[in-house]
Design brief:
With 393 residues, the chain is an alpha/beta fold. It contains 14 helices and 15 strands. It folds into 2 domains: 134 residues, Aspartate Aminotransferase, domain 1, CATH 3.90.1150; 237 residues, Aspartate Aminotransferase, domain 2 (3-Layer(aba) Sandwich). α1 runs antiparallel to α9 and α9 crosses α13. The chain is globular, with a radius of gyration of 22 Å. The structure holds pyridoxal-5'-phosphate. Pyridoxal-5'-phosphate (PLP) binds next to α4.
Length: 393
């Protein structure tokens, strides 16, 4: 059975060019990039090239790029660095819809006595900028707001938010793990101090990330050890993955416009056909400010996980907006923050596309999904209650 992979916000396929660039550094060119000999030195040069490729993708300078082990490490390093740089400040300003890489860290910091403000979003997933401005205080050590939401694809106005934070003398970090490679980013044209990237979301391998730190920003390392990364992140470099990520950044920079136009067309086709063919379905999150590859669709009165299981029988991979926690299905914190009604939130599915998807695949999903939903609804007591079901919403 062919796999139809529509779960690219979870992880992406490593590009062939990326794998080809990496392989020699496992097999033959295994020297330590910090070694004095030329065998290691040639690897060091390749890492410098990867740093330049990564910097070019986001309009940064190479020395502003710190290679890390993943997006989670980058988020943790940014927030902890800001707290270390401003020990007199005890407030972190973030949102209710952040990825656990930020959200769980903030919960941990709260238990340690830090004051955390999680800004709400409206029903479309949009941040209230008036509340944001009000929440910035002289005690705020850092703002951490995601650029693009991993579940809905909704974009936050991080450029404007960073400008306001900078005016008030507050550091600004953005988790751009879902944004990099999907929308243009130019660090020369914004006031963002720190930005997180994860390799496996842009066709590089898992276990490699980047923390961008603007030149002049006070930085306190998370991993203390050797002199690597200009003493900002100790540990022998994950050489093949850094080289792979450099290649992935080069590919993204070269192809972003054309590729994302194609992905957008496929996403819009999928979305429009699903909404047209399946009654009581709706898109979660604004359709105005959104990643081109993501759509989060709710199917009323069915369980997301049941939809995933039936789609899996056809080889279709996606994600659901509810997760089985302690035996009960909980809608995601993102959909809850948006106030998505109970019966909608439970039946939400995130489709996230990549350049490797084809029109035939999208047609296949459009063809199979209506009967899957119909079958599940025929077994749903709520659906069969008809209008009376409104009372359970
Ligand atoms: N931030 C966002 C928005 C994400 O979507 C993810 C991964 O899903 C992460 C952070 C964590 O990245 P990593 O898996 O590289 O730790």
């Amino acid at each position: 059975m062919k796999t139809i992979y529509l779960d690219n916000n979870a992880t992406t396929q490593v590009a062939k060019e990326v794998l080809d660039a990496m392989l020699p550094y496992f097999r033959d060119l295994y020297g330590n990039p910090s070694s004095m000999h030329s065998f290691g030195g040639q690897v060091g040069r390749k890492i410098r090239a990867a740093r330049e490729q990564a910097a070019a993708l986001i309009g940064a300078q190479p020395e502003e790029i710190i290679f890390t082990s993943c997006g989670t490490e980058s988020d943790n390093a940014a927030i902890r660095s800001a707290l270390a740089a401003h020990p007199d400040r005890r407030h972190v300003l973030t949102s209710r819809v952040e990825h656990p890489a930020v959200k769980s860290l903030c919960a941990h910091l709260s238990r340690q006595g830090y004051r955390i403000t999680e800004l709400p979003v409206d029903k479309d997933g949009i941040l209230d900028m008036t509340q944001y401005e009000r929440a910035l205080t002289p005690d705020t050590a850092i703002v951490s707001l995601m650029w693009a939401n991993n579940e809905t694809g909704v974009l936050f106005p991080v450029g404007k938010a960073a400008e306001l934070a900078t005016e008030r003398g507050v550091l600004f970090h953005t988790d751009a793990v879902q944004a990099v490679g999907k929308i243009p980013i130019n660090m020369k044209a914004n006031a963002i101090d720190m930005l997180s990237i994860s390799g496996h979301k842009l066709h590089a391998p898992k276990g490699i990330g980047i923390l961008y730190v603007r030149k002049g920003t006070k930085f306190s390392p998370f991993l203390i050890g050797g002199h690597q990364e200009k003493e900002r992140r100790g540990g022998t470099e994950n050489t093949p993955s850094i080289i792979g990520l450099g290649k992935a950044c080069e590919l993204a920079a070269g192809n972003m416009d054309t590729e994302n136009r194609m992905v957008l067309l496929l996403r819009d086709k999928l979305e429009a056909e699903i909404l047209a063919r399946i009654p009581n379905s709706r898109v979660n999150g604004t359709r105005l400010y959104r990643l081109p590859n993501t759509t989060n669709i709710s199917f009323e009165f069915v369980e997301g996980e049941a939809i995933l299981l039936l789609m899996d029988d056809y080889g279709i991979c996606a994600s659901s907006g509810s997760a089985c926690t302690s035996g009960s299905l909980q809608p995601s914190h993102v959909l809850r923050a948006m106030g998505v009604p109970f019966t909608m939130a439970h039946g939400s599915i995130r489709f996230s596309l990549s350049i490797y998807n084809t029109e035939e695949e999208i047609h296949f999903v459009i063809e199979k999904l209506p009967s899957i939903i119909e079958r599940l609804r025929s077994m749903s007591p709520y659906w069969n209650l008809g209008d009376q079901a409104c009372s359970v919403r």
